[in-house]
Write a structure and sequence with these properties.
alpha+beta; elongated; 8 helices; Rossmann fold; OB fold (Dihydrolipoamide Acetyltransferase, E2P); ABC_transporter-like_CS; binds magnesium ion; six-stranded mixed beta sheet; transport; binds adenosine-5'-triphosphate; five-stranded antiparallel beta sheet; ABC_transporter-like_ATP-bd; 358 residues; 20 strands
């Protein structure tokens, strides 16, 4: 296993920027995810780690070994490509054994290793099938087995679940995590699906337009987004504009665009937020933290009129018009009567759940 360092890495394609100034240190054995919308530079960064692209600037190291300009076959990384890139005319066995053949592993050892890996990814008995006789989920596992069989130091997975249906995605997500924990392998995972990233990763790097926006644990990224982009990309949130009106001990008072006064905690601010009187701030308020008011909270209660109410069984979701703002809330169904469109509602925004995103 090995750590991976990207030291101020840039990739340009002619005039077009691929990625800019990616600077990360991924620990040995870590499950690290690149997350961001289409075209943000996830595959480009992964390909530089695998050696399929060389950086325009910067350095890549595996442990203390400089690999920046090493070709892919000298890097000992296993990669699952965005479209799997399996060999359709070969059997499952031949696909998985391919990397061992290239590395001139003798036939007896290769057979033993392929069979062991097939067992690990639960493909026993499928060795003689052709790729086009497999389901999407089975193909995905062949791609994973092909990457794992060479016993890579680093496993690179580029949207490996994107072709699977919802149920299979969840199952395979669990399986990949199980394998990663079992083998303790440094894993870099690419996805544009925030739930996938949140549930699997030790840390996440959020990217937009080739630039790193934030690196942190799922908890940090969710609760402490550094800007509007991260706040809204990672799950649903309410983004309210406000102006800092004053301070009271460790609390900051903010007047919202529609004139409500809210109190938040000074400690809940991203380094980019300007918390001084008269400055504009963006507040991120997660829907699940907004509670129906009991009437006893004293502060941070806003009133409004329900625009939409949605009952999903487990949850009750409201969209409420509060002055000129709209506020989404989501709560566990406790069997209370559900408000309907047009009903008046009081909502409590606990001060510790307001985050100043800057
Ligand atoms: N070989 C190439 N030549 C020119 N431009 C490229 C090349 N590869 C990628 N790009 C550009 O670099 C940017 C990042 O592309 P990349 O494939 O890394 O995005 P991505 O985050 O993986 O997106 P997706 O989620 O759609 O797979 C895009 O603007 C893309 O058009
Ligand atoms: Mg991609």
């Amino acid at each position: 296993m090995s750590s991976v360092t990207l030291d101020h890495v840039y990739k340009r394609f002619g005039q077009a920027k691929g990625v800019e100034d990616v600077h990360i240190h991924i620990e040995s054995g870590e499950f690290f995810t690149f997350l961001g919308p289409s075209g943000c530079g996830k595959t480009t960064t992964l390909r530089m780690i695998a050696g399929f692209y060389y950086p325009t600037e910067g350095h890549i190291r595996f442990g203390s070994q400089e690999v920046t300009s090493l070709p892919p076959h000298k890097r000992n990384t296993g990669m699952v490509f965005q479209n799997y890139a399996l060999f359709p005319h070969m059997t499952v066995f031949e696909n998985i054994a391919f990397g061992l053949q290239v590395r001139k592993v003798n036939k007896t050892d290769a057979k033993e290793r392929v069979e062991r890996i097939m067992k690990l990814v639960r493909l026993e008995g499928y060795g003689e099938r052709r790729i086009d006789q497999l389901s999407g989920g089975q193909q995905q596992r062949v791609a994973l087995a092909r990457a794992l069989v060479i016993e890579p130091q680093i496993l690179l997975l580029d949207e490996p679940l994107s072709n699977l249906d919802a149920k299979l995605r969840e199952e395979t997500r669990f399986e990949i995590k199980r394998l990663q924990l079992e083998l303790g392998i440094t894993t870099i995972y690419v996805t544009h699906d925030q739930a996938e990233a949140m549930s699997m990763s030790d840390r996440i790097m959020v990217m937009q337009s080739g630039e790193v926006q934030q690196i942190g644990t799922p908890h940090e990224i969710y609760h402490r987004p550094v800007n509007r982009f991260v706040a809204s990309f990672i799950g649903e949130t309410n983004l309210w504009e406000g102006t800092v009106a004053g301070f009271d001990g460790d609390e900051v008072l903010v007047r919202t665009a529609s004139g409500q006064m809210l109190s938040g905690l000074k400690g809940n601010a991203s380094p980019r937020a300007q918390l001084s009187v008269g400055e504009k701030v963006t507040m991120s308020i997660r829907p699940e933290s907004v509670l129906e008011s009991t009437g006893n909270e004293g502060q941070n209660v806003v009133t409004g009129s329900v625009v939409m109410s949605e009952f999903t069984g487990a949850c009750v979701n409201y969209v409420t018009e509060v002055g000129t703002e709209s506020l989404r809330s989501m709560s566990i169904n406790l069997g209370r009567p559900i408000k309907q469109r047009g009903d008046a509602i009081g909502l409590h925004i606990p001060k510790e759940s307001i985050y100043f995103a800057g």
